[in-house]
């Protein structure tokens, strides 16, 4: 279970003053106007059960990346706490945090994050190299996952030889190869064409059914959320506007902002 409890996080110069304003529920606009600071997340509480494919949806600037970075411990919440499978992430020592990020969490990025001078196989095995696994085991596991994502013929190719969709399949194989129980996917398909995106969404659904890992999938696209999510949360200007199944959100959007998202997607 991933649990965010009353998490507030600001960016700017005078965090103390900003937090005092946030505690008094000044809101994002007033904090920007009066203090020139950004209230990235404002009193966010969220439970993501183990094994669920949970979608976080929101517009650019709504706080999605900040939320992901709080879950993987890249930033610590200024108010509130983040627990992952019973561990208070913000309470971890730097050494334990490195271990936590290596063993518990794998990431898939919008920009793929592949090394251009490494082969597809080396890229897929990269997380395993960091873990200190030997060459033979690394190659075997990388090959296994590359086969699973349909790229067995490309193990020795370089990323430049692949299409965007194939590159993201490598990103997926690399994330799966480390065998972490939690997969954080930050707008992984936003740079891809609709047909490729559709294929990769299908692959994620297959993998989720097969592996039952906890997947936190960030998107700004309600159609994508609707196809993938067991449950989802809509973030709006740093606050959670609504959580529920896609069907619940489609049927009864909590406010005009959520309704606009629903209307943007063809039923
Ligand atoms: N390091 C930072 N310094 C200052 N402001 C930041 C920083 N990181 C994020 N912000 C601000 O916090 C708010 C939330 O940003 P965040 O990146 O979490 O949103 P997002 O929903 O992921 O948007 P996007 O889809 O554009 O990445 C935005 O207004 C952003 O400008």
Automatic annotation (TrEMBL):
InterPro entries documented for this protein: AAA+_ATPase, ABC_osmolyte_uptake_ATP-bind, ABC_transporter-like_ATP-bd, ABC_transporter-like_CS, P-loop_NTPase
Pfam families hit by this protein: ABC_tran (PF00005)
Any single GO BP term: quaternary ammonium group transport
Domain spans labelled ABC transporter: 26-262
Keyword Cell division (UniProt): no
UniProt feature coiled coil, ranges: none
Protein origin, superkingdom: Bacteria
Family affiliation: Belongs to the ABC transporter superfamily.
Name of the protein in question: ATP-binding cassette domain-containing protein
Organism: Pyruvatibacter mobilis
């Amino acid at each position: 279970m991933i649990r965010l409890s009353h998490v507030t996080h600001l960016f700017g110069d005078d965090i103390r003053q900003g937090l005092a304003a946030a505690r008094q529920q000044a809101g994002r606009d007033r904090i920007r106007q009066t203090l020139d600071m950004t209230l990235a997340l404002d009193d966010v509480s969220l439970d993501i059960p183990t094994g669920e494919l949970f979608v976080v949806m929101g517009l650019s600037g709504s706080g999605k990346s900040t939320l992901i970075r709080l879950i993987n411990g890249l930033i610590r919440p200024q108010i509130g706490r983040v627990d992952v499978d019973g561990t208070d992430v913000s309470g971890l020592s730097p050494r334990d945090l490195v271990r936590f990020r290596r063993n518990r969490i794998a990431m898939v990025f919008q920009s793929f994050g592949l090394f251009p001078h490494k082969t597809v196989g080396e890229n897929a095995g990269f997380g395993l190299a960091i873990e200190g696994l030997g060459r033979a085991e690394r190659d075997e596991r990388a090959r296994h996952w590359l086969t699973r994502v349909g790229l067995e013929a490309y193990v020795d190719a370089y990323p430049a030889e692949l299409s965007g969709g194939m590159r993201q399949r490598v990103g997926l194989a690399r994330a799966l190869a480390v065998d972490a129980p939690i997969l954080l996917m930050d707008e992984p398909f936003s740079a891809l064409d609709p047909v490729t995106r559709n294929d990769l969404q299908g692959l994620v659904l297959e993998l989720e059914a097969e592996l039952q890992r906890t997947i936190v999938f960030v998107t700004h696209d309600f159609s994508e959320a609707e196809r993938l999510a067991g449950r989802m949360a809509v973030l709006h200007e740093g606050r959670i506007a609504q959580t529920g199944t896609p069907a619940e959100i489609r049927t009864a959007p909590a406010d005009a902002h959520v309704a606009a998202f629903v209307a943007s997607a063809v039923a």
